[in-house]
Design goal:
Layout lengths: L8 H17 L12 H5 L4 H7 L2 H11 L6 E17 L2 E8 L2 E9 L2 E7 L4 H11 L15 E2 L17 H18 L3 E19 L3 E20 L2 E4 L2 E5 L5 H4 L2 H15 L8 E7 L6 H8 L4 H6 L19 E4 L20 E6 L2 E2 L6 H7 L7 E2 L8 E2 L3 E4 L15 E13 L5 E13 L2 E6 L2 E6 H5 L2 E4 L4 E3 L4 E4 L2 E4 L1 E4 L2 E10 L3
Parallel strand pairs: 5-7, 10-17, 16-25
Antiparallel strand pairs: 1-2, 1-3, 1-6, 3-4, 6-7, 7-8, 7-9, 10-26, 11-12, 11-16, 12-13, 14-15, 17-18, 18-19, 18-20, 20-26, 21-26, 22-25, 23-24
């Protein structure tokens, strides 16, 4: 892990404030502020600031204080981020925002009880106080003795030699301008375009009472283009994204203009969309970000907290067939450049690839340390948190339906009337009942084995276990999307990857509104 000279919080925020104000005001010469500075590359060294305060000795003392009343396990989690957000709306700079959150928290758990306290600074005395507060969940227990921590070097699942997050601001601003121009040039009916660019550099440090001490640096970029098309009284929207944990050359390998044009074409097509079909019918769902369906409908039910509490629809079903034999579901925290990938999770466990369902049989769960402990199993490296202000929960990483053997075009064959789903919109699922509901952002009729006219206002509803048993074809065109998916649970929002190949369901209930 290379360490460059760290940039100070004050210098970083001062630079961001000057740039934001100059661009917003349209001042002459503001573009010169977008050029690289020696401080830009210095962000690479931010992790050293955490270690300077929370070295092995101080972490040991904090963990000893945390377990002074007893407990099964304790850990300390420290984090700091450099975050940039640029928003271009209707061709004008709407905002440019810089953030630098930093802090740490101490957790103790005893069986299925958890105590957690955090500090908005990485300060030894403040974290000693946090340890005392968190330990109050354990009453009248004998003292537990943590192991002395020892540094562990965790090999990252992939390397990023020149992170896109570290590009000069000029390059970031140029990307959003290019996407805005490309979307507008695609179709005269495009009336407005919004482009959002976000990146961050996140450093974490985790010390654990079983002797673990590790750090990870995580880069993330996301660029979303959302054009709106108008024709008469109709209005329609498109959406495409780029990003992931990628290097700067990514934006040369992909085409920002191509993504923007695709979003604009989608919006223009949907202007002519007709009413959706209604009722039970065959449904074919295309590859990529539509993998959010499996993430929501089944993935959450496989998270360890719902399993040990018995509130998940699949609790107690390990080793049994829960879906079509064609279904294989994987959660992979090591997927190359994946939005949900990392070297270690937020509990210090290395990221892992876990086969959750194989040939329709439930094989594993997504487990953090605590749920694994309660269930008598091992963590699968799925302990994640939104920030140092939150305690970890068992969460998914990059979750996808694995590729099948069918040619995607063949999955349309024999369908007299059905629905093809190219993109999903918002959705929800009840992990206790398994009932789900998703809007369809981009959908088309299937008529006599061919994709025909676009529809608007469609929704797909069903029950997860019933619907997954109706899979009758899985394509060989797996796409894992790392551009934009986020997942919210218990108020914590985290980035995730989702994916699937083309999948055919023999029947699914389609509803919605024709307006």
């Amino acid at each position: 892990m290379s360490m460059d000279r760290p940039i100070s919080r004050r210098d970083f925020l001062r630079r961001g404030a000057i740039l934001s104000g100059a661009l917003a005001a349209g001042l002459p010469g503001a573009a010169s502020l977008l050029s690289p500075s020696p401080a830009d590359a210095a962000i690479m060294g931010i992790g050293q600031e955490l270690r300077d305060v929370l070295n092995e000795e101080t972490v040991n003392r904090i963990l000893q204080e945390a377990l002074a009343r007893g407990g099964d396990f304790a850990d300390i989690f420290a984090e700091q981020r450099f975050r940039t957000l640029i928003v271009l709306d209707d061709g004008k700079l709407d905002s440019i925002t810089y953030g630098y959150p930093r802090g740490a928290g101490v957790r103790i758990y005893y069986r299925n009880q958890t105590g957690y306290a955090f500090s908005d600074s990485v300060d030894y005395n403040a974290l000693l106080d946090s340890a005392r507060v968190a330990s109050r969940i354990v009453q009248n227990q004998s003292r537990s003795t943590p192991l002395d921590v020892a540094s562990k070097i965790i090999r990252p699942p992939f390397t990023i030699a020149n992170p896109a997050s570290m590009m000069p601001e000029s390059a970031k601003f140029e990307i959003v301008q290019r996407m805005d121009a490309a979307a507008r040039a695609t179709d005269p009916r495009i009336g407005s375009v919004r482009v959002e660019y976000m990146d961050e550099v996140r450093d974490i440090l985790v010390g654990t009472s079983d002797g673990g001490y590790a750090m990870d640096r995580q880069y993330l970029v996301s660029v979303l283009c959302a054009p709106a098309a108008r024709s008469g009284g109709n209005r329609a929207f498109g959406l495409e994204g780029l990003g992931g944990r990628v290097d700067a050359s990514y934006f040369a390998r992909v085409s920002p203009e191509g993504a923007a044009a695709k979003a604009a074409e989608q919006a223009a097509r949907l202007l002519d969309a007709g009413p959706p079909p209604f009722g039970a019918m065959p449904v074919v769902i295309g590859p990529g970000s539509t993998g959010m369906l499996i993430h929501e409908s089944l993935g959450h039910a496989l998270e360890g907290d719902g399993i040990f509490r018995g509130t998940s629809i699949v609790a107690g079903l390990a080793g049994t067939r829960i879906a079509s034999p064609l279904l294989r579901v994987v959660d992979d925290g090591t997927w190359a450049n994946g939005r949900g990938s990392y070297a270690i999770d937020d509990e210090g466990i290395p990221g892992q690839r876990t086969v959750l369902v194989d040939a329709g049989i439930l094989r594993s769960y997504a487990l953090d340390r605590q749920s694994a402990s309660v269930l008598g199993l091992q963590s699968t490296g799925n302990g994640r948190r939104m920030s140092y202000r939150s305690q970890p929960l068992p969460r998914l990483t990059n979750t996808y339906v694995d590729r099948g053997a069918s040619d995607p075009a063949s999955l349309l064959g024999g369908i007299a009337k059905g629905l093809f789903v190219a993109q999903l919109g918002n959705g929800s699922v009840n992990p206790i009942s398994g009932n789900f509901n998703f809007t369809v952002r981009e959908g088309y009729l299937i008529e006599n084995g061919a994709i025909t006219r676009p529809v608007r206002g469609a929704a797909i509803v069903g029950n997860a276990l019933e619907t997954l048993k109706r899979i009758e074809g899985v394509g060989n065109d797996l796409v894992v999307d790392s551009t934009r998916a986020t997942c919210t649970k218990d108020g914590q929002t985290i980035p995730v990857g989702v994916g699937q190949p083309t999948i055919r369901f023999s029947s699914m209930t389609v509803g919605g509104s024709s307006t």
